[in-house]
Each structure stands twice: as C-alpha cells, then as structure tokens.
Amino acid sequence: MTALSTAGLAAQDAPADTGVPGPEQDPYIWLEEARSPEALEWVAKENERTLAAFEADPRYAQLKAEALAIFDSEDRIPFVSFRPDGLYNFWQDKANPKGLLRRTTLESYRTAKPEWEIVLDVDALAKAEGKEWVYQGMTCLPPALTKCMVALSDGGEDATIMREFDTTTKQFVAGGFVLDTKSQGGVQWIDADTLLVGRGFGEGTLTESEYPFTSRVWKRGTAIADAPDIFRGEASDVWAGATLLRDNKGTIHARTAYRGVSFHESINYVEHNGTWLELDIPKKAGLFGIVDGHILLSTDVDWTTDGQTFPADSLIAVDLEEWKANPNGAKKTLVWAPGERQTKQGGAVTGNALFVTLLDNVVGKVLEFNFDGGKWVSKEVPLPDNATLGIAASSDETDQIMYTVSDFLNPTTLYYTDGSTPPAVLKTSPAYFDPAGMDVEQHEATSKDGTKIPYFIVKPKGMALDGTMATLLTGYGGFQVPRLPGYLGSTGKLWVEKGGAYVLANLRGGGEFGPNWHQTAIRENKQRTWDDFIAVGEDLVKRGFTSPEHLGIQGGSQGGLLVGTFFTQRPDLLNAAIVQIPLFDMLRYHLIGRGASWIGEYGDPRIPEQRAWIEGYSPYQKIVAGVDYPAPFLWASTADDRTHPAHARKGAAKLKALGQPYYYFEDTTGGHSGGVDNDQRAKLQALQFIYLMQRLMAPVTGG
C-alpha cells in the first residue's frame, strides 16, 4: 500500500474486528486520498474561504512583505559545510526560489560579501525538466566528496529520486547511477563504482510504515533490479537496512545493519566472519561514531554489562580494533555520563577530536573529548553562557569547526576556530525585529501529577499582569525532540514587535532533560504531555500574563496533535489554536501516511488495551456537538507524505459538519514543513499571524 491510500484500500486495512473506524463509522475517509479530484475540489473551496478571510485584512500584505524580506534577506548567514574543495552552501532567495548549491573558499567566506561559485542551479533544472524539484541534499564518496548522489523530491515529498552528480564538472554524470523511482531511503558509496542502496525496490520491499527494509550492493553498469540483497529486515519492522561504519578519513571499518522494531528501538548487527552478528547492546542504544581509534556507543537506557552500569544518555567507548575482532566481548569504558538535568544533543568528529553539544537545564554547552594518556579527557569549549549552542559545521580533515549561538532576542552568531585558538565570531545574522523593551523570563507550571514543567515567556518589560496580553503558547513534547530558545526572527517581527507575547513550553515527551524526560510521557502515559501543555496555559492565566480571551496555541506535526488535544480537552482556556501539518485522527493514524512508524510513541489502535489509551485523547474523535471550540485554524500540505493532509482535512470537515467555526488552508506544493520557497513560507506565516491578531488582539466577533 502506498502513502496515498485510496479510501477502498484504507477500509480494507481496518476490518471491523480491530475496532479501528472504517467508512461506516467515519464519513470523511475519502479525504485520506491526497490527490483525488473530490478531495482537491474540497481543498480549493476551503482555501478560497480562508484566504478571503485573512488576505482581506489590511495587515496581511504588510505581514507577508515583512516575512518575505526576512526569508529573502541577502545578509542572513549563509551556513556552510566543510568539504575538500571549499565551503558549500544551499541558498534560496527571491531570484532563486528553488535554490542554488554553491561553494566558496574560507578566505572569501570571511568577507562580508563572499564570492560564490554555482555548483547546481535547482531552478534551472526544474524549469528544464518541467518538475517542481526540491533539493533534498547529496551523499558523496569520501574523502574527496566530488562524486555524489543528489536527492530530489517533486513538490517537497519525503520520497526522492537520486542521480549521480560530479561537483568538479558541476554536471550530472552521463550514464551514471540513477534511481528514478520515488522512495524513502538513501545510498552510501562503497567505492567509486559501488553503492550500498537502501530504498524501495518494488513489491515486498517496504515495511507497513512504508520505509525500506532491504539493502543491496549495486555495481556500476548493472541494473538495480539485479543487485543482490546483503541485508533484509522484516515487513513488520518500522525500517531496516545496512550501513557503513566509516571513520572521518573515509575508511570503512565494518558493515553494520539495524532493524527498527519500533520508532525508538532497534536491533543492531555487524558483519562478522561472513555473517550478520547481533550486537549485545540495548534496543535503545546505538553506534555514535569513531574517534581516536575507538568506537563510541550511546544508550538511552541504563545498561548493565560486564559488571558495570552505564546510565541512560551516557557515551561509552570500545577500542576499535578490539571491537572488530570481538564485537560483543570488547571492553567498554565510560566516556561521559549526564549530571542532573543534563542531556547530550548531538556531536561532530573533526580531524582529531569529538565535540558534543549538551543541554544543562535547557542551557547549551559544548564539550571537547580526546583519548589522551590512556584515558578520556574533556574540556568545555569557551562559548557564551545562557544561550542555545549548536555545531554548524565541522571538518573531517582538520580541527576546523563552527558553532551557532542563539537566544530569543539576539540574532544568531556564527563562531569559528581552526582548533589552535578559542572560537571567535565569524558572522552575525542581521536583526529582524526591534527587541527594545522586551525581556525573557523562565517560569515553572505544575502539571496534573505534580511535575514541574519549565517554560520561557518573551514579553514587554514591566508588562501589567492584568490578563490582557495577546499570548502565543507553543510546544512539541514528543520523540525526544527538545524545543530550545532561539532567535525569534519572523515571529519576533510579525508577533512580538506587534505587541504579542511568546511562550515556549518544555514538555515531557521532548528531549530537554534527556531520555527519561521523553520516556515518561509516551504510549500509555502520553496524556502527561497534553497535561503539561494545559498546565502551562493555566499558569499563564494564573500569573496574569494573559487570559483565555487572549491566549492562543500553535504546534506542528506531533505539535499539531498537542494543539488538538489542548483545544478539545480545554476549549474554555483558549481563543485561538493553530493546528499545523498535524496528527489528528489517532484511531486511524497507523493507516495514514507513515503513521505506522510511530506506534512506539503512541501505541497501536488495533490492540484494544492500547486503543483505550488513544481514544482518551484523539482530537478527531473528541470533536463533538455542543462544545464551543476556539475557531481553530488547521493547515496542511498536499505533498506531505509523512503525516499526510488527511488529518487536518478530516478535522476541518468534522468541525464544519457540527457547525463549528474553523479555518482550513492547504499548501498544494510544500512537503512536511510547508512551503518549499520563500514566498510560500511568507504566505503561511502571514496567514497564521493574521489569524492570531484577529482572534487575540482585536475584539472577538466570532468565527
């Protein structure tokens, strides 16, 4: 079954004895077919109504122009990656809406106006081929990184085609490797004439979640259909495949493989003595990288092995050669373990060191690790305090590395070092809004079970606590993904500068405080995430920051589900709700888009016990007659093959049938993140902030 299920197929996949709603229980299943004429006609009518309501507002044109000026800004930081032939950047602006892949030198990049050499013009390619190509990145053969496979999607889908490209000639390779059937998955280069391919190869090669579960070795000059499988998972896996264990010099040390038995759990393997050996590590653990002759592992659960216990979120090292000789018997050594309210975020390996970004009570730090004198030593990288830190780029060959430093009110700053001196400012993003008179506070709300939930509020200094402030509350709370303070950019310009307050909640289910913060609010405990978000809303009202008349919420994807649960469980606490590219019908989510992959987060509605968890909050089913909902604004993307527009469509259709006020908009070109070019992104921003202004800043006049 493809991601764009027909209503008939969907009905067949939900037999009555599973308890999953079918056409007899759900009159809007026909909206699950993304591009049926009937569904697209419905979308067109909804878009026309919503655009008429928002574009006619005298503030709309200004908001869109302000957002577009930010997105098209020529002096925004052009973030780069290090490659042997230069610094690479992907750039979109008014003249190049689909984007340019380009490169420059470090010397030129240091200047205010670098000189760029165009490597690939996606606009020109799309025009020549009559496609809505969206550049989705490239995978290149190390160490030279000139021989690449470029991924392109048509209109922003997750699924891509792939073509061989030479960055030296700046041309697609005539007669080169081509994967012209759209699929999830990707490739890795084994050598100049061999690819390791993990994609859909036709019938019987996709999981129930519609991800690949086989991997093949493909030799140049042969057909992909004739390439032999080297690893095969199970159709019941979320995803599965083989990969290459490479160091930062490009040397392949082993072939490894994985079977994602749930979104958060994998069985890992290594090719050893000609067979696939299952690694004796937890299902919530995996390989982190190679540094200083050691392979590093990371675990999301406490791991007791060889007479010692490694705490969740720690880094563990094993001598690489010892591991290759005896993968399950090699000695393990602790590299790093988190302190209270600490968690690692990501890492990068340069020519000689490992760098790991951490959160320490939602404040960023970066540690540098080296194996020195027979032991692991670390030191903190000197970067600004009380900010969100990230690794923007790192070199495999040298010790060059770039960091981002950001907070709500100050533009993002890019720091650089070659390893011989402390990081120094290289570039600073322009200010997109005036922060004068604004301040940031951090508070805690008490959730239903007594857990303290931190949140940030950006507001006017000295604001009267009289409940009149128009306030936008956002959050995510899922998949161990953190929401962190970062420069507000267009939100600062279109909302905070216009007199609104902005709130970011750090909810359980996210990754702000490590794996346990996530795992305590999944599956049977997912309601805790929704309780946390509601608790923050209640706390904002209790403190006098705002009132239900002036409180709005916003979230996308899992965050769209978050917003849906809030406005269906506590409609009395809100006056606006933006439901972006959401999950919404949680009793059929496993049949829509790639929903089956998220059963590890939410549970399986086909199993009665688990369906009971989900029925308690599924927003689509919780929309009922006789309740005054806060005229939600739902929006989605036709090309979103991940969460799928059916969720938002069906929510809007049900609200309409009940005579409830609502708004619906569907971007007909963007993928899971919405607009694929800056003009469409600006339009989406303006529509949402006009909605918020009409609901929260102006007198309420109804839907």
User: Largest sheet, if any?
Assistant: 8 strands, mixed
CATH hierarchy class name of the largest domain: Alpha Beta
Which class best fits the helix and strand makeup? alpha+beta
Beta-strand residue fraction: 25-35%
Sequence of strands across the biggest β-sheet: 32-33-35-34-36-37-38-39
Percent in helix? 10-25%
Q: What does the overall shape look like?
A: globular
As for the CATH topology of the largest domain, it is: Rossmann fold
CATH architecture heading of the largest domain: 3-Layer(aba) Sandwich
Distance between the termini: 39 Å
Put the structure in a nutshell.
With 703 residues, the chain is an alpha+beta fold. The strands form nine sheets. Strands 32-33-35-34-36-37-38-39 form an eight-stranded mixed sheet, with helices on both faces. Strands 5, 6, 7, 8 and 9 form a five-stranded antiparallel sheet that branches.
Describe the 3D structure:
Residues 25-422 form the Peptidase S9A N-terminal domain. Its EC number is 3.4.21.26. It is an enzyme of class 3 (hydrolase). Residues 1-16 have low confidence and may be disordered. Helix content is 20%, strand content 33%. The protein has 703 residues and is an alpha+beta fold. The protein folds into four domains: 35-67 and 432-697, Alpha/Beta hydrolase fold, catalytic domain (Rossmann fold, 3-Layer(aba) Sandwich); 184-279; 288-337, no CATH class; 340-431, Lipocalin (Beta Barrel). The protein contains 15 helices and 39 strands. The relative contact order is 0.11. The two termini are 39 Å apart. The strands form nine sheets. The protein has an eight-stranded mixed β-sheet, with helices on both faces. Strands 5, 6, 7, 8 and 9 form a five-stranded antiparallel β-sheet that branches. It has a four-stranded antiparallel β-sheet with strand order 1-2-3-4.
